[in-house]
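Backbones bend. Our protein:
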Amino acid sequence: MLASGVHVRALLVCFLWPAAAQGWTEARPLTAEARVQVEADGKAIVSYRIVFEIEAGSFRGFTLSGMPEDARMDQAASRAIEGSGATRPLRIRQGTRQDRGSFWIDLEGEHGVGRGQLVVELAWATRVEIERTDEGTIYGWATPPWGHGLGMVSASLDLPFPAARVRSVLDSFSAPQMHAPTRAEPGDERPGTEGTDLRGSQTVTARDAQHSRVTVSRFRLPRWTSLGVRALVEKDEIAPSRQPAGVAAGSLPAKRSLAARAAPFAPVGVAALVVLLGALKRLGTRGVARRAGAIALDVLPALGAVPRLALAAALVAAGFALGAWRPGWAAPGTAAILLGALLCARRFGVAVGARAPGTWIDLCPEAVAERIRQDVRRRRRLASVLDATCPRGAVLLTLLAGAAVAAALRLPEDEARLALLLPVDALALLVPLFLTGTRRQLPPDLGALSARMLARHGRRARNLLARAGGGELSIIGREIGGGAIDELRLRLVPFKAPEGLGAIELCTEVWCRTPTLAVLIRTRAGTAAHRLIPRLRGVVERYRSKDGSSCVAIIVPGPDGHAGLLRDLRHALLLFASSAEPEVKPTTLAAA
């Protein structure tokens, strides 16, 4: 009985276990064919075709090792063709760190390929090796090695030069294990690797008048061996194809300068600069959250005038020296100039004083709309000043950076003139920093923020007051010197209220540059309204006056935001209305 139970469990495991775990996969590559389209500067597109023989199991993928680290696989152009003619897409993954030269290639889908032949076509971009000699220029490339021996391997280089100038370099094996003639490893008995020598051919053919092809093929290639193809392009007075007419024949394009190589990264630098400016603005204004007391704001370390100027001058001089005398240090030089200019920018160390004394006055309902219009006009005036974090400043910053890149591209190869690049870069990078510290960013304009908050939530508060029995609704403003209003509030005085309730005010608080709505409830100490404060929702702080006669409770938004705050306000209004003393009718008094 026990034996039969074991057999049943074994059968269930065989049926339910994945197909990949029921047995092994026996597959080996038979042939490999590579065609490399080479440009004059060494860039190449490789088309690689491998034929696999699947003898047992289910074939799902393989690993391609020994690839150059700069190879970029084109997954869209790669595919697998089964023996029936069906096409399967491939999933290609590249290794990381020490495995950058390995690619894991798997078949898409849940099922593998059974016995038979499978053709895999791959495409990737890379660069071929270039070597300059007295005779000309040698272009070289090698096939990736395989752990199995191959029956036949061929590699072709399509060059943009006439066939009359191209010849193949003999014994062109790139791997150190491979030199012609050589023998296969004694322990490798797989078909396709037996034999005593490596027979093959090397040919040069003309594709057209300006293009040629060098083909190298070998039979019975041992395992872990690369087949290399090398073509020598002899010097000639005729310019190669795909090159401008003014380039001398047989010569490659000159090595690009540092400025030309850095030009494609200019947009990344501009984006990084904008992020830096935004971070400086946010860090520089986080200390202005509270609205009372003197607040010292220092973005940079507090240094004296003389040490600050001395350090800034040293950094700027070091930056110019690095960029002018050592071109490879242009980026650190520009960074040193940037840091030196930041130390000179005194407008990044400012002090925000306490609020000016003011008086609360009653305002008309049109005061909210008028305050918003004033804020719009003020923002337009400030936008005319260069601010790297506003649209106009960002556009001007981009134009300055573009001018710096254009100047860099026009610089000659002379290293002495590379110093001209640094003032232009410094102008593009540092001018916005000096002009960014405007009054727009510190401190926040509480008057404009409170006007926008009341315009957004004032109507909802009025409806809540009407549902709680009605009341008086008014707008009050804090008037400072010159008749300016620096804050607006909405005051609610419900008709149905317990003894001691003064007023309910909707105000605006600023926490880390983020405006939020808050509710202030003013009560007299020891009254019925004051005893209801613990029953309110969302109360975070309570303040008593100096003489202890009055108390202020503050309700701020919770996780639900302003919607939750308005629900807490409704609960407070209904609680006060239900706790109000009943109104005594005059007829009752007369009857008494």
Summary: The chain has twelve helices and 24 strands. The mean pLDDT is 71. The longest strand covers residues 43-56.
